[in-house]
Amino acid sequence: MSFDNILVTHDDGVTTITINRPPFNLATPGLIDDLMAAFDELEGRDETRAIVLRGAGERAFCAGADIGHEKGPAGEGRGLRDAGRALVERIEMFPKVIIAAIRGWCIGGGTGIAWPCDIRIASDTAKFRAGDVYLGIIPSWSVGMVRLVNYLGRNRTLDLLLLGEDISAERALELGIVSRVVPDAAFEAEVDRVAKRLASGAPMPIRAIKEAVRAQCREGFDRAALLEEAWAQKIFASQDAKEGLGAFMEKRKPVFTGK
Fold first, then answer.
1. Residues 33 and 153 reside in one and the same domain
2. Strand partners, 8
3. I need a labelling partner for 59 at 20 to 30 A (CA). Which of 114, 123, 163, 204 fits?
């Protein structure tokens, strides 16, 4: 795979997508197109079991949208908003686990890319900001005003969006924005460890858990319960279930095939 705005590399079951627009890795329609195309290819790549999404360099994961691309028809920026919403939906709906590896600034559209990821690992250098109201605009990729209350709750969402202050990695961990914070010197090793662990899991259960948790937020308790039983019938009859239980009894590492 070759793209203008991202780099894609593979290491066993882990694929890394690097936003390659340093130093700030600003979001543009071209970047979003590349990310969407990469996800399309990786969904069908059986060897890819987990994806790491990161920014090039150390200054930023993604420091927001490129202002030069904000203006759309009638000055409304609708094209970039629609593209951003489609990317957020793709990340949330993606059947494989996605890990955001966040170093440096993560601002505006960058938070829209990072926060919907399944696991979010931050270097202690990471800083977050959702200060749209102090630019006279609103967050418009269906994260801050649509999903964030499900991630954080009403009060924390209002604090974050209305105050619009810089959030340290440690504060982000307290809020639940990130899964863990790692000293920068240990950041690469921890991202690699977590990604390889997730890549070693059984693909069907990972997909099932993502679908059911998403359903709890978007469709409610009853839909999640139906998904749980539908997936349970399929998974408990799968080859991977037999392999996992057999490996446990035999005290060996399981080899999952996704079947």
1. yes
2. 17
3. 163
Query: Is-contact 109 141, C-beta < 8 A?
Result: yes
Round to whole Å and give the CA distance between 171 and 21: 27
Asked if residue 136 and residue 44 are part of one domain, the reply reads yes
Helical spans, DSSP H, in the chain: 29-43, 78-93, 109-114, 148-152, 154-163, 169-175, 184-199, 203-218, 221-235, 239-250
Q: Which domain holds residue 179?
A: 6-199
What is the per-residue pLDDT across 53-87, written as a single tens digit (0 to 9) for each?
999 999 999 999 887 655 544 444 678 899 999 99
Q: What pTM was computed for the model?
A: 0.94
Rounded to an integer, what distance in angstroms lies between the CA atom of residue 127 and that of residue 182? 13
Q: How far apart are CA 152 and CA 174, in angstroms?
A: 10
Q: How far apart are CA 93 and CA 85, in angstroms?
A: 12
